[in-house]
Request: fold
Amino acid sequence: MQTSTNVLQTLDGKQKFERFMRLLDIHVKPYRADNGVFATKDFIQNIKLNDQHVTFSSTGAHFQSGVAERAIRLISEWARTGLLHAGLQWAKVTPDLWPFAVLYAVDVWNHTPAQTNVCPLSRFSQHEIPSLNHFHPFGCPVYILNRGLADENSIPRWQPCSYLGIYFGR
Reply:
């Protein structure tokens, strides 16, 4: 997750995204962006260096990136709803966990089948996607097995077998 919109963090995120795409045997060529940090000299230079091109949306022209804008709004709403629900159910969940809620909402979005019964991640990567059975409500209490037992060792009799945690995602 980026903590600022400066060009260094943006370029770092771009490199990590492209590295992930190469693992899926996908080579990123075009980018569509707004004018902000993507119009800086450093970003344009990096685009040219990697034999890519970028097109820009007009200022205030949300209709040019409607699909992305809708996905961003939906993920934000899912993250907010999950965080608020978990906070109402369990006092240990606070707004400080917002980045984890967003990452979880993105993971759910990527793995949820659309009307075509194909999820976005599968359609994008052409790979089979794991089952939805391992998804649980964000922020719900989970019990984590004591490391000694997880490593198949014994633990002292009066030591707890597990401890309470918060579910942040798979």
Helices lie at 7-23, 41-49, 66-89, 98-111, 120-125, 147-150. The chain has a mean pLDDT of 85. Residues 1-56 form one domain. The longest helix spans residues 66-89.
